[in-house]
Amino acid sequence: MATDTARSATATATATASEPGGEHEHLQRSDRVALLRAMLLMRGIEERAMSLYRQGKVPGSFYDGYGQEAVSAGAAFAMAPADRLCVLHRDLAAHLIRGVTPVRILAQYMGRVGGITAGRDGNVHFGDRRLGCVGMISMLPDMMLVATGMAMAFRLRGERRCALTWVGDGATSRGDFHEALNWAAVQSLPVIFVLENNQYAYSTPTDQQFAVDPVQRASAYGFPGVVVDGNDVEAVFDATRRARERALAAEGPTLIEAVTMRMHGHAAHDDMRYVPEALLAHWRERDPIARQERRLVELGVDVAELRADVAREIEAGTEQALAMAMPDPATATDGVFCTGEAEPLGDGEAPWSGFRSTAGGRAATVREPGASDA
Ligand SMILES: Cc1ncc(C[n+]2csc(CCOP(=O)(O)OP(=O)(O)O)c2C)c(N)n1
Ligand SMILES: [Mg+2]
Could you tell me where the beta strands, DSSP code E, fall in the chain? Predict the structure, then answer.
């Protein structure tokens, strides 16, 4: 069964750079706390939003990434301000790391004016372009083509930047997946594909999705595919940091398969009766937040205080979002067409301490004179 293949691959290929209490070559203590904080915020916001959904305050349905927090947190943390991110529906921590505040996310879910799309879309198709994030395209995995296109623009302009997108296991069966891998490889583009293998695509398990682990397709196109423990945030960070270095050195793309588990249904309506309880029990033992907490407790971090702080921030954000107005219907078509100058994508926040030096961060971004933004 492909699920078993993926699991055993995790066991052999996990690139965990540190054990509980150990030093990390690239992460300072504050970085490691920031990673946990992003995951706690993601989980807490999504849990709060799910209860708001059940109270009828979140329209449509609700999608979350419970149990997968390390995949978006670890990958986004390795990206510099001028890099660009195409964020998917289970990757909330990426938005948080780029600088989107909890109140804006909660307002987004509830369709309020203060949301990222100001009430124009629901709980997955958003991205703050001012923070270098591209709003999700629903057709899967079209974000791979968008990221590949942005990477091509960087290359053509001679810019030292990188694009990253996440992609689900189910989306690997679409033709666009292959087109993106092929073009990125042929052109040796600075793009990173993070394959978020959460064992299911809606109700389809991976053994009905592919006969060969899709990470192996990377070598068929001529570039490395790396398997990483998707429930270890520091391992995901490490794999992404290396992939970014490769991309900036003009060595081309990397496909990172982050092996994880979708611990909730596809969306709020899905009771996921089709998922064997033993599989959930297996992954419950590998919770990414509990894992990072164990590391930080060993380092003497007051995790309880961090949790309390995150809970306060989410409660304050919820109150503020609930107090916001719904958008004025008369503004519904605002922003559909570009009027005047097009606003380029802006840079995002990049809290990793590695970007505070000149190596790899904003200061290292080489821009050609007169180059426009992507
Ligand atoms: C081309 C396309 N077909 C169908 C859908 C409907 N759909 C949305 S999410 C989803 C499951 C995707 O599974 P996967 O890629 O594994 O991502 P996950 O939801 O597990 O994170 C489907 C079928 C879609 N968005 N795009
Ligand atoms: Mg999936």
Answer: 84-86, 133-134, 163-168, 191-197, 200-201, 204-205, 225-229, 254-259
CB-CB contact of 58 with 110 (8 Å) = yes
Best of 87, 142, 202, 270 for a ligand 1 pocket test (most atoms within 8 Å of beta carbon): 202
**pTM of the prediction?**
0.92
Cβ 226 vs Cβ 219: under 8 Å:
no
Listing DSSP states for 184-234 in one string gives HHHTT-SEEEEEEE-SEETTEEGGGT-SS-GGGHHHHHTS-EEEEETT-HH
Read off the amino acid at residue 54: R
19 Cα–ligand 2 center, Å: 28
200 lines ligand 1 (CB under 6 A): yes
In whole angstroms, give the CA distance from residue 206 to residue 196. 12
CB 199 less than 6 A from any atom of ligand 1: no
Which ligand has an atom closest to residue 267 CA?
A: 1
Residue 7 pLDDT exceeds 90: no
> At 300, which amino acid appears?
G
Q: Is the CB of 141 under 6 A from ligand 1?
A: no
pLDDT in tens, 88-127: 999 999 999 999 999 999 999 999 999 999 999 888 899 9
Q: Encode pLDDT of 161-194 as tens digits.
A: 999 999 999 999 999 999 999 999 999 999 999 9
Residue with tokens 């001012």: 130
**How far is ligand 1, taken at its centre, from the CA of residue 139, in Å?**
8
Question: Closest ligand 1 atom to the C-alpha of 88?
Answer: 21
Residue 153 confidence (pLDDT) above 80: yes
Q: For residue 217, what pLDDT band results from cuts at 50, 70 and 90?
A: very high
